[in-house]
Amino acid sequence: MAKVQSRYVCQGCGAVAAKWSGRCESCGAWNSMTEEVLEKTPGGLSARGKGSQKLTFVDLHSQSEPQPRMVCGLAEFDRVTGGGLVPGSAVLVAGDPGIGKSTLLLQVAARLAGGSSQTSATCAYISGEESIDQVRLRARRMGLAQAPVQLATATSVRDMVASLDQPQGPSVVIVDSVQTLYIDSLESAPGTVSQVRAAAQELIRLAKKRGFSLILVGHVTKEGQIAGPKVLEHMVDTVLTFEGDRGHHFRILRASKNRFGPTDEIGVFEMTDRGLEEVANPSALFLAERRGNVAGAAVFAGLEGTRPLLVEIQALVSASPQATPRRAVVGWDSSRLAMVLAVLEARCGLALAGQEVYLNVAGGLRIGEPAADLAVAAALVSAATGQEVPEETVIFGEIGLSGEIRPVSQVELRLKEAEKLGFSRAWVAPRAKKGAGKARLEGNGLAVEEISHLQDLVGRLAKPQSRSLRAQPSAH
Ligand code: TYD
Ligand code: MG
pTM higher than 0.85 for the full model? Predict the structure, then answer.
């Protein structure tokens, strides 16, 4: 006899407990435990139980050619997916509400269905959030109304399965969003961990069975209330996060997990009134707002996936009236900033402890690379001394705790991009193989100067009459 059991699942982090409690023991969220009923057969599974089947083991090599990937023609999207959508796979597109997920996926759907892609596909767009008219209105505004996308509104997974579980179904199915889905056999409300997980599981199973490519939209929500895409990450093949700053018109699609491609690729889009436009040369765009040479600004030659990306890093250092000065960072890791500040203080004698420090990556980009250390340090030192970084200079290098500058990868690629955008000088980490690349790049008009210690950088940016650069904190 099957025994009915229940367990309690935290809607914030997905932790499971046998008993209800007011506060999740795992993540500390209040009032986030909800009951989930599960049927359990007592004892272990017997080999001769009803409905069991023997597994068929096969070789690793296969005779059949894999099905081609579906390329939508939006190069920025295709690159992030690792070269197109894989049939039978599940992709989760996660992002803040209002960031542009529905807009992006409607464009992808229209491209895939409309034959502007290399492989023509039938594409279904199922919206659980917007009405048919709303989606149509959006399509008309973006000039996509004629694309042969199959549009439907639904929230019941049972209805979706009933319409998609057929041999001649669509080859791409987009479900917007996973938080609106519900399975009627579960008691919890749509958006709870159990509903989101069960609904996604059901659709993913169907995608594998019927060979369509499933794209799920998931809102990243404030912790606690509704199940975020975190609980789905392990179930899907690919997780793409769509991010950007509301104050800026850039949007970045980033692969944070990809079973079919690299995970460090980004796609850059610009928001317009006609939808998202691809940005083929993001460096030019991120540097477009640069205001000549000012103290506290440095250009970092970074790398996002296979693509070099130049961004401006801005710093502000000012005297603080408070006992604990403020440190604020936008677009970079705050603990990394603390480390760079500590190294500047301990190894170079730069007194920043009593100063407020603000750091900003221009354009709303988020940088995760340690190679940005040197550019951050340059912006900070320049802000503190008032001495500008020489014009048309790009900077990159990782800083070690003793102040040494460590080599970074893909130096040539970074330098080439800098040169392409008209930079004339580069301050770089010492390269493993000295000499070879240097001469060639200098010949092309880019003077490469290696910086082996942070003190060298500070020396370049220190003015003899500098006001705030003090060798000893006791100078005042
Ligand atoms: P939407 O795609 O609905 O966001 P999400 O699905 O992530 O919640 O976009 C939010 C709003 O921004 C919507 O009113 C349309 C507008 N928008 C544009 O006008 N142009 C664009 O390029 C994008 C991406 C959005
Ligand atoms: Mg939406």
Answer: no
